[in-house]
């Protein structure tokens, strides 16, 4: 438990070569059904799910919890990092299956019928400030689901407790395919983010790795 922020868990699925999607950011299925079921369970244990607007634009995810194929009663808050208000009207994340909070920058004037907005930062969403705001709303546990730029930002700010990576048994390739951690990367070896391997488990279609942030 942290006094000023929720617990933060990252979850993502990547290919053996570290890619999250096809070149041109096109979504592809990396997780097995087994892994999808695990992700739904993980979502159901969280109070909020965070994604970057790049994921909204590429995948249009609903970010809801389904258990045994049915929409679960507890639906975590859906949170989008969207400095410039690029979430399109009609995006699944704006539907009424769960509530949605869009974190925008100071200069953004966009409003959405299906979501509350919160101003957090200027050039990019200030992750520390956003997490503090979520904590004030009694959000205790958040799941960061991607994409690569968003995961990098969370890792870089060191505001992460656990990271689950499902490695699907496949190679996607392509220098332009998004990876687990995009953004600027570590300019020197001092800034590399060390991880502590907590568990590894073979699953249908791949391997699940669970890391703790050191
Ligand atoms: N395999 C998986 O598990 C998985 C999961 C999710 C997504 N994906 C894939 O990931 C790809 C999308 O990833 P992406 O890296 O392009 O986009 P992303 O991480 O989803 O979103 C990045 C965007 O979020 C906004 N943002 C605002 N504040 C930010 C901050 N502090 N840090 C980072 N981003 C911030 C920025 O846009 P503004 O400057 O306009 O605000 C930024 O360009 C898609 O191809 C999708 O299919 C895969």
- What separation lies between the terminal Cα atoms? 15 Å
CATH superfamily: Dihydrofolate Reductase, subunit A
**Total number of strands:** 11
Quote the average pLDDT. Answer: 97
Write out the distinct hetero groups bound to the structure.
NADP nicotinamide-adenine-dinucleotide phosphate
CATH fold annotation: Dihydrofolate Reductase, subunit A
Note the overall shape. globular
* Helix count from the secondary structure assignment: 4
| Cα Rg | 16 Å
**Strand line-up in the sheet with most strands:** 7-6-5-2-8-1-9-11-10
In short:
With 214 residues, this protein is α/β, with parallel strands linked by helices.
Structure commentary:
There is one protein chain. The chain starts with 6 loop residues before the first strand and ends with a strand. 18% of the residues lie in helices and 29% in strands. The protein is built from four helices and eleven strands. It has a single domain, classed as Dihydrofolate Reductase, subunit A, CATH 3.40.430.10. The chain has helices spanning 33-44, 53-59, 127-136, 148-157; strands at residues 7-15, 48-52, 66-67, 70-71, 77-81, 100-104, 116-119, 141-146, 162-168, 195-203, 206-213. The chain is α/β, with parallel strands linked by helices.
Features:
4 helices, 18% helix, Dihydrofolate Reductase, subunit A, globular, binds NADP nicotinamide-adenine-dinucleotide phosphate, 214 residues
What is the element layout, followed by pairings?
Blueprint: E1 7-15, H1 33-44, E2 48-52, H2 53-59, E3 66-67, E4 70-71, E5 77-81, E6 100-104, E7 116-119, H3 127-136, E8 141-146, H4 148-157, E9 162-168, E10 195-203, E11 206-213
Parallel strand pairs: 1-8, 1-9, 2-5, 2-8, 5-6, 6-7
Antiparallel strand pairs: 3-4, 9-11, 10-11
Residues 12-13, 20-21, 25, 27, 30, 51-55, 58-59, 81-84, 86, 124-125, 127, 145-150, 153, 178, 182 line the site of NADP nicotinamide-adenine-dinucleotide phosphate (NAP).
